[in-house]
Write a structure and sequence with these properties.
Elements: H1 3-12, H2 23-37, H3 42-58, H4 72-98, E1 106-111, H5 117-129, E2 133-139, E3 144-149, H6 157-176, H7 179-184, H8 225-236, H9 247-262
Antiparallel strand pairs: 1-3, 2-3
Length: about 260
């Protein structure tokens, strides 16, 4: 190795960090460990901390870029509405089951405004915790979530699912996103929706703006959802990669397919 190469290696080398996880992560994992055991003792806290330290050292969490900020009022709104959604959805699901109705489930594709891994994961996780919905797949590059709903009528149809997820994403962004991330997502920076949205030509397109372009994949419970999702992604070029086609051509194909379905 040349002297220049050694100099570059020495200058770019980063010392190993221990512990790999932040103290907040270690404390959170310790609390989870104690809750799982159901016994609040000094030994459980110590054992939980050691286990958290071991797990985060052997299998550290992957680094995810995050340049957000903490907005107290935005967080309060996010948590309060999320808890209300859980309670409300639980009652609706219980009433539906007691009425012995036949559910008409579907997998619906929703394109979010943000393309950040962090916000995509937060929206997916919170959506899955609300009874009656679960995220079955996601596509980070396009900021797309595939959501299975228990019954489409309970959630207001395809438009209702789009509206619910986009509103959930907005609350997440207004709680944690930076000024630039909010602008990139088409929102006027602020802690609440009252701050407003940017003009439509400026804001990025979303699944809510392009429902007519067959952005949704729905199917009855008895159908093969995997085939529907794969076929839909194949048309978008997600799996087969239509490098030789322009975005306009792809949109035209999707629009034609949507018209054939409606016909």
């Amino acid at each position: 190795m040349t002297k220049a190469a050694e100099t570059i290696k020495r200058a770019t080398r980063r010392p190993g960090r221990f512990p790999h996880a932040s103290m907040g992560t270690l404390v959170w994992l310790t609390i989870v460990w104690v809750m799982l055991w159901g016994d609040v003792t000094t030994g459980n806290f110590l054992a939980g901390f050691l286990v958290a330290l071991l797990v985060t050292t052997v299998a550290p969490f992957p680094a995810a870029p995050f340049d957000g900020r903490f907005r107290p009022w935005g967080v309060v709104r996010l948590v309060a509405i999320f808890l209300w959604d859980i309670v409300r959805a639980s009652w609706i699901q219980a009433a539906f089951v007691l009425a012995q109705k036949r559910p008409h489930g579907a997998i619906i594709r929703v394109q979010l405004r943000s393309h950040s891994d962090v916000y995509l994961a937060m929206v997916a996780g919170m959506t899955g915790l609300v009874p009656g919905s679960v995220v079955v797949d996601s596509h980070q590059a396009s900021g797309t979530l595939y959501v299975h709903v228990f019954d489409t009528e309970l959630v207001g149809g395809v438009e209702g699912v789009h509206r619910t997820l986009l509103e959930q994403e907005e609350r997440v962004l207004r709680a944690f996103a930076s000024h630039d991330e909010l602008v990139a997502a088409g929102y006027v920076p602020g802690s609440s929706p009252s701050s407003g949205k940017l003009p439509t030509p400026y804001a990025p397109q979303t699944g809510d703006d392009e429902r007519g372009d067959a952005h949704d994949v729905t199917c009855d419970e008895g159908q093969d959802r995997t085939q529907h999702v794969a076929a839909d992604d194949e048309r978008r070029g997600t799996y087969n990669g239509t490098q030789g086609e322009t975005d306009t051509e792809i949109r035209a194909e999707i629009r034609e397919e949507g018209e054939r379905r409606r016909g």
